[in-house]
């Protein structure tokens, strides 16, 4: 068992705002064992950047982990050649070239439809009425699962995300996650006779992959490919509207929408952590780990590490975000990063602000989550 210093948390308070606890751990010994999560949390950026790549020690393969138990095997829970093979097979669907030449115009068309529907309303909740729809429609295209509505894409994604972050064992969350998995499996079966070009389902089956593993990677794509860009869209709008001078910099051409997207992802870290299983006894950063221990690499803490980022709690779109771990590091760097960057920074944000140049916030905004974090609602008027 890990001999890291023990740090107790209040789970609901940690979900509401994890940063005070994470700062205490990071600025103390850098790592701590949290009994409520049964895991050792590593919180310093350089440690995580280095150790996450050591998959021989910190394995992604966790057959007893929540993701595998609820969602089945997928490329995120593989290492080495198995992981590399799945990435190579799925790459034609996610590649920057495919995103540019095939997906981008589809993203724009669906986003335009969403904006046209919202315009007469004079306001909306950006999370529910805009970001959910834009991301859900994009995932229908990328995965090829047109049997799912965009509302179902969001609902199944959220159910699976809640399930894999259910370290406190809520049976209702587990049940919802399993129902979401079943619904996606049903959609895969219904799509087999009509495989859309460049879709994740098509490129996998064309490679010779069996339906079961292909469906596992689609479930992974939906679980991560919906909530993260959804939260980044709504959250980045909130960040810019609460920092109007930085919004003006973008409008004046002194910064870009991509700058805002990358800075929001660093600042709020929609993906707050990645779990790993320890494969052997070893000491890391003064912490003695034992085979079978569970480790969480806390991206959210790393992305606010003052050893790397000046004034890290400040939202600043002019900063250099190349050290950010928002999309991970090493062999498990987010496979869908190009899709997310295009959808959020080149489509959703610029089109929203162009359509509604006088958009303004209405009411307070509350964030929630520590493993996955985003705004609960962002109400706006125009």
From TrEMBL:
Keyword terms of this UniProt record: Heme, Iron, Metal-binding, Monooxygenase, Oxidoreductase
Annotated Gene Ontology MF terms?
heme binding; iron ion binding; monooxygenase activity; oxidoreductase activity, acting on paired donors, with incorporation or reduction of molecular oxygen
Which Pfam families does the UniProt entry name for this protein?
Answer: p450 (PF00067)
Source organism's superkingdom?
Bacteria
Its EC number is 1.14.-.-
Keyword presence, RNA-binding: no
Q: What is this protein called?
A: Cytochrome P450-pinF2, plant-inducible
Family membership: Belongs to the cytochrome P450 family.
């Amino acid at each position: 068992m890990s001999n890291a210093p023990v740090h107790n948390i209040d789970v609901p308070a940690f979900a509401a705002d994890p940063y005070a606890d994470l700062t205490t751990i990071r600025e103390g010994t850098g790592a701590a064992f949290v009994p409520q999560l049964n895991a050792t949390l590593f919180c310093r950026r350089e440690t995580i950047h280095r150790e996450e790549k050591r998959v021989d020690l910190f394995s992604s393969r966790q057959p007893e982990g929540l993701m595998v138990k609820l969602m089945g095997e997928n490329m995120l829970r593989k290492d080495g050649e198995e992981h590399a093979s799945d990435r190579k097979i799925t790459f034609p669907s996610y590649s920057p070239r495919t995103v540019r030449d095939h997906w981008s115009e589809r993203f724009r068309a669906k986003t335009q439809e969403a904006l046209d529907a919202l315009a007469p309303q004079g306001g909306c909740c950006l999370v529910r009425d805009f970001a959910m729809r834009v991301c859900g429609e994009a995932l229908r295209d990328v995965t090829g699962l047109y049997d799912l509505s965009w509302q179902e894409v969001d609902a199944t994604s959220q159910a699976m995300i809640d399930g894999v972050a259910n370290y406190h064992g809520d049976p209702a969350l587990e049940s919802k996650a399993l129902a979401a998995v079943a619904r996606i499996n049903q959609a895969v079966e219904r799509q087999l006779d009509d495989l859309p070009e460049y879709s994740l389902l098509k490129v996998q089956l064309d490679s010779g992959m069996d339906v079961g593993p292909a469906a596992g990677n689609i479930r992974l794509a939906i679980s991560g490919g919906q909530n993260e860009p959804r939260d980044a869209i709504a959250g980045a709008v909130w960040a810019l509207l609460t920092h109007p001078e930085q919004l003006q910099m973008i409008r004046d051409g002194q910064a870009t929408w991509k700058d805002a997207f990358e800075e929001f992802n660093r600042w709020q870290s929609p993906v707050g952590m990645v779990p790993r299983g320890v494969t052997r006894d070893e000491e890391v950063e003064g912490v003695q780990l034992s085979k079978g221990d569970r480790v969480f690499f806390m991206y959210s803490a790393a992305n606010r590490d003052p050893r790397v980022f000046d004034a890290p709690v400040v939202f600043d779109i002019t900063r250099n975000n190349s050290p950010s771990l928002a999309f991970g590091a090493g062999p498990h760097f987010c496979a869908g990063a190009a899709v997310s960057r295009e959808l959020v920074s080149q489509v959703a944000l610029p089109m929203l602000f162009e359509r509604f140049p006088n958009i303004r916030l209405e009411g307070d905004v509350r964030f929630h989550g520590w493993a996955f974090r985003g705004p609960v609602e962002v109400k706006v008027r125009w």
